[in-house]
Amino acid sequence: MRSTRAVLLPGTASDEVFVASVFAGPLAEAGLSLLAPASRGVREHVEALDAAWDGTPLVVGGVSLGAHVAAAWAVRHPERCAGLLVALPAWHGAADGAPAALAASASASVVESAGVEAALAGVDGWLGAELRRAWPRYGTRLAEVLREAAGSSSPTLAELGGLTVPVGVATCTDDPVHPLGIAREWVGALPRAVLRTTTLAALGADRESLGRATLTAYLDA
């Protein structure tokens, strides 16, 4: 019997390489198969989810923006969704000045005026290395994708309240761009959700730490 597929989407200007590094191992251990589409931006993420649907309910989710898009897809198509894996939710409803949206908008402006390296000045460590790897893959679309993300909406708390599938939510307690309080509000709104936490330091040392936290929360839900 074929294992349940999990379709997981990247965060803003991230990519399928990072998604696989976070989720492939933990999902395999749980008997789930990973599909990490090479999609770019909100519209392509939705198209990837639609293309993955083959009549069998999917586990969907992702990181930050990818989690938002997957949750919105689940709200629109509850019959297609077997569960949600939500890593680092950044806001619910309209962005309304959320830290992640402000950061994306500011980065887009610097990318347009001064280039990628200027936008990443001062971003060091594993995160800086990750962005310097992923951002050039977007080419001339980078600023456009950053702005699209900054202006996008996530499901509202009321919409999340209508989802009856199990949901695993994970966040990093030391991440100001994806506040712990937002993750708690998602879990408070969802009927069947569990929250697990990790840290950015742990994520830097072991990408799978975030995937394990998300999947453990899902299995507990």
UniProtKB/TrEMBL annotation:
<dbReference type="Pfam" id="PF12146">
    <property type="entry name" value="Hydrolase_4"/>
</dbReference>
<feature type="domain" description="Serine aminopeptidase S33">
    <location>
        <begin position="42"/>
        <end position="111"/>
    </location>
</feature>
<protein>
    <submittedName>
        <fullName>Pimeloyl-ACP methyl ester carboxylesterase</fullName>
    </submittedName>
</protein>
<dbReference type="InterPro" id="IPR029058">
    <property type="entry name" value="AB_hydrolase_fold"/>
</dbReference>
<dbReference type="InterPro" id="IPR022742">
    <property type="entry name" value="Hydrolase_4"/>
</dbReference>
